[in-house]
Sequence to fold (377 residues):
Amino acid sequence: MMSKTRTYLDNNASTPLCPEARAAMVEAMDVMGNPSSVHAEGRAVRALIERAREQVANLIGARASEVVFTSGATEANNTVMAAGWDTICVSGIEHDSVLAPARASGAAIIDLPASTDGRVDLSAVMQPLSEAAAGEGKALLSLMIANNETGVVEPAADAIALAREVGAAVHVDAVQGPGRLPLDFASLGADFLVVSAHKLGGPRGAGALVIRDGVSLPAFVRGGGQERRRRGGTESVAAIAGFGAAAGALARETGAIERAAALRAELEAGVKRMTPEAVIVAQDSARITNTSCIALPGKAAETLVIRLDLEGIAVSAGAACSSGKVGSSHVLEAMGLPPEITRSAIRVSLGPQTREADIAAFLAAWQKVAGPAVIAA
Ligand code: PMP
Fold:
């Protein structure tokens, strides 16, 4: 349990477990049996997995048959990148779980440029991608739905239209989508889509690779043939049940996106009032409403994060959801932002549990750690 004196504003790194997910996990832990067994015990535990599959599919507008459970988004992204592409078109603003396996895959890389507003420029890759996809070339275009550091919403629908036109497959890292923007896999038309349980109220260590029906992807873990022969191994039943319950709860949630927008506006206005030199990265771009990337030129991001932490506020510096990482944000660098921004940017990310009092606590701490020194009269 988080202490009352703490204010948690790092929901893009991980959201708190919602009560529905917790209850489903506790219940699942007491259901014995192997989900592949044919007896009644096996069937009962299998039913928990299939119910979760329906709940996750329902949340993102997919069919249950399209959902493959994984250990998280990192595994799902790695799997798609390693599927034998000749060419992968990808932007430097992607998460490391896309970039690292894409670069290690041996595929030729087409760099999808991003501009200072945080959006990728698809027109720049139209020609090289169509050349790569011509003939026998297996080409993949990968684009996240919204950036985890800046919150900028990427043009996923345009990317899919472009890929279709040139004959490339499309992968969408939608980890920061559920609960933050409307998401419908069927109408989006991607071949592969990735989500993660712990970004939407579920447990850490569960995720899904959603593969459009009819799209072939070789088995990525071979063994007992689970997950329709794609990912062998006895399923992590409690984590999957928690993932499903969180997805179910989120599908019933209303108003969270608008609430976050109002709270973020208050937060950003307060920051600008106290520290006019602060830069809100990509403030004029379409952004998911829970995310604010704030740079304070002249201050090191990690110092801000540590000082805010000492004041009871949890935020992160750039992609600090990767272990122990400090320094400059690769996302902001790929956007072409100068070092005084890339080295001084912190990310504040709200969740459905965030309230006015949390924003007030953040602003009070910001005044202490970033504002001008208060001079006693
Ligand atoms: N993609 C994005 C955009 C993310 O924000 C994250 C989590 N930081 C991941 C992938 C990796 O997710 P997981 O923790 O489930 O491996």
